[in-house]
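User: Sequence for DALD3 protein below. Tokens please.
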Amino acid sequence: ALLQARGQGSCCSVVHVVSCEEEFQQQQLDLLWRILDPGAQTVLQKHLVCGPVKVTNPSLPIGADQYFQLRKRQMYEASLMKYGELAQDEAWTEVIDTLTVAAIRFEMLSTAHRSQITLDLEDSSISTKGTKSGAFVMYNCARLATLFDSYERAVERGTYPPLPPASELNFSCLREEGEWLLLFNYLLPFPEVLQQAAQLPAATKGIRITANTEAVCKFLIQLSMDFSSYYNRVHILGEPFPHLFDQMFARLRLLGAVRDVFHSALATLHLPPLSQI
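Assistant: Structure tokens for DALD3 protein:
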């Protein structure tokens, strides 16, 4: 149960997080508490019910540890197919672990908590290419890291000048529709997405409450799709001609903000950003 103080001298809230199979049992516990403890009458109790997790065509019952190991093996094999021997390097062990955790968290958290989750344990269900997977989000986060690493190395070689402060940039150079889409659909609404994900509307009728636990995952998936579409179409680091620098700098500042949003959103899921894939 989650306890949240509501201010000095007022009642507190208790949120019972419970699976749908145990919902009735938890309601009995709620009622028993109210009967046995007179002080419980001042406590606002709510129940956040989580839907079931089903597995398609399971040959044997599978536990959490087995599920993690299965997804890790599948992620390793998918990475091996895409990157070849590079994925066998020791440095990739941590990358594959992070991709596995990301895949599992997005599988579990992209669906509203009250809905059923159906897990497909076949190898084909895990991919480094699928646009709605945690691996796809991590891949695009790594693309941004690679972009800025390439730019910084080019600055050290003297190919490009250092990135000026934002106050000195000409953002009217951003004329691509995809650039304004990133700004208005993701950068500006991001604080509101975080607020929605963190809210628990306790002041509702009935004993049940709902939470937007899927908001951040859905936001990251959509951001990854639109960023990927833009990044595949637009060449950010162009020829080192002075008349092209204004546009390049404006784009780098925009994508720097996109990178910050990726990092902040992933942090809410306790996922570290990857610097390479």
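The chain has a mean pLDDT of 85.
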